[in-house]
Amino acid sequence: MNNAVSQDIQAATQATYTAMRKAGAVRRRDGQLKMIAGVTRAVCNAKDAKDAKTKQASPKRLLVVNGETGCGKSLGYAIGAIPAALKKGLSVVIATSTVALQEQLSEKDLPAVAACLPEMRVAIAKGRRRYLCPAKTDRHIAEGTLPRESNEQVIQWAANLRASTWAGDRDSLKESPDAKVWHMVTTDSQECLGRSCPNLHECPFAKAKSRVEAANVIVTNHDVLLTSLFKNAGSLPDLSNCVLIIDEAHTFPDTALKMMEC
Question: What's the pTM value of the predicted model, to 2 decimals?
Fold first, then answer.
């Protein structure tokens, strides 16, 4: 495979960048422009979705980028990867190690790209333990097994979930919950009843997974990505049809080694 960028991908990337410049979402940065070009070339050397299982991949599909803080890396890889990936029928998975960067991506950077690329559909993929389990919550409330000082709080969580005033996401609570209490009202892949659960229709994790399945740009963390890679489980789609971007990659090897030790 060669290093050439097809005309349609080059045009899509250029159009996205130009529209973002006009909207004031980016300003000219030479380092960022080099990154956009490099990422676009790498994505062009990835396998198309239609032949992901048959075409031999090129080593040139791999790219390592190092940049100083403030050089616009997240927008650089987003502009370089997303228009190209969507043209090839691929999704984009962006994995970070910190909540702060996930919030920056989901609340600022990716909406700015999506405003100029209407076919983008963004979702956040989190681990199952980040969400309330309605079945376990109901059971603990009915059996009176919650700590007395937390009983009213958990009842309120359940009420807010059913009133659609809260999505069941731990990260959207105003105050961080007690770790012991939260563990009681959430679940993991071994405990989860899956499609046989009577509360499936209101399960926050199931709803979040549906949003991820409908998305073509997914923000997640290193743990969720590694779970998908090592255990073929979790909330991510088939990664063979995805462009993977590992941000804050200097922490990725240690996270992977810790998971392999489990």
Answer: 0.89
